[in-house]
Model the fold of this input.
Amino acid sequence: MTVRIVVIGAGICGVSTAIWLQRSGHEVILLDKGDPGMGASVQEWMGFRPTPPDNTPLIGQIGTSGIYTGFGHQHIGLSTGPKTGRLIAQLIDGETPNIDMMPYSPERFV
Done:
């Protein structure tokens, strides 16, 4: 079934999620304040990165809201973003990812 999905944030994770969802046949709208992939991914930057208290990314659905998260990768978002995108796409499609998603659940802070 084709679903219309909005991906907010066109960094490496957002773009990867959009690509995997499009490959699954979904209609995807990618939103960002600038051009896709042109944010922090290409600019030099030095300082602290936002991170969850346990230093583990939040990847998955927030409750049963239909809102999925994929953030908190710290300085390794460029290398882990594509896998996160695929995991989010699998979750949206109702597929079982090939890794245990419990450690990444956004619900761990509720």
In short: The mean pLDDT is 87. The two ends are 31 Å apart (CA to CA). Residues 11 and 37 are 5 Å apart (CA to CA).
